[in-house]
Amino acid sequence: MRREDFRKIVLYLTGQTITMFGSALVQYAITWHITLTTKSGLMLMISTLCGFLPQLIITPFAGVWADRLNRKRLIMLADGMIAVATALLALLFMMGYDDLWLLFAISAVRSLGSGIQAPSVGAFLPEIAPNEQLMRVNGVNASIQGAMMLVAPVAAGGLLEFMSIDAIFWIDVLTAFVGIGFLAFIKSVRPRTAQNGNNKAGVFGDIMSGLRYVAKTKWLLQFNGVYLFMSLMFGPVIFLTPLMVARSFGDSTTLLVIHEVVFAAGMTLGGLTVGIFAKKFRNKVIMVGIACAAFGIETLIMGFSPNFVFYSAVMASMGMTIPYVNSGAMTMFQTKVQPEYLGRVMSINGIIATTTMPLSMVIFGPISDSVSVETLLIITGALMTLMMIPTFMLKDMIAAGEPAREELAITSQTP
What we know:
Blueprint: H1 3-38, H2 41-68, H3 71-94, H4 100-128, H5 134-162, H6 165-184, H7 202-216, H8 218-248, H9 253-277, H10 284-302, H11 308-336, H12 342-367, H13 373-391, H14 395-400, H15 405-412
Helix pairs in contact: 1-2, 1-4, 1-5, 1-6, 2-4, 2-7, 2-12, 3-4, 3-6, 4-12, 5-9, 5-11, 8-12, 8-13, 9-11, 10-11, 10-13
């Protein structure tokens, strides 16, 4: 890898890590506050909707902006927007306004910022990293995300013992602007084939052209169909396991910290192994499919957890599978989607997530107030596992998972 490419990647990952740390502190603080003060699946459902619906609304436009405009500046703009919203929340809490609806409102504003940022983040990395290194960089990025998830809950739990929640909000504001500073030093080069959208067609015309591109690309249709189903099934694992901990093992912040830490530790380890073992999987779709099947089995097993130690071991194992899913899927998008459509394709993928995740909570959130979370995990885990069987028979998607030319070249040079 060229020294200049290495410098850009280091700056990018460092800035994103700092920003991610501050955001994670706030997210844990908000989630734990709602979980421990209400212990209600309905309140978690409302919080989830506030965190996803604004992102759903803005994401189609953000995909077009990511293909038309400077992606780096969009990321910086979104980070700044989230920082300002968080600062406002901190000021309101300092003034004594700490009603639950304020957390919902700020979550919605932060969701808008995330919706603007997400397509640009996914599409920006190929501008600074060579194609043959994308899987490795995505693996490192997944490992860093896991490490932040490992450090952030511990830090949040410790800080909550010594300072108020509004002080943690200010940490997020500071880290956001530090991250923006790192990103400002990166000089990116747009791919030569990128066309920055069709200005004559307008934003809605560009949105439709992105949809047509996905519609005529069979492997993308198949992949998004599988992703849609899996996202529906992810709801109980992602949003209701803290509720399971509070109900079944004790309403302690310490247990919630451990719950997050073991998952993050697994995710960190999984991210570190992606660069080592991912090349053993020639086909990215097969790698993702096996990881998803493993996640489904682990979800089912978690539903039978007899104690918190067993639960934590399964949670760590689940964390290890996530980087294989995310890195494989992201690298496939970055190397197989035409660069001029990458932002819009990433936004469509984001729309699926921001639609199905809240829908999943609309379904499972209220049910969790009358049915145990364990039962929901058993059911969704079994369905996720069974779904992976027909996935391996989708020929177009399997073909798209084959390595790009640059990856084949680098593999052939590896002893």
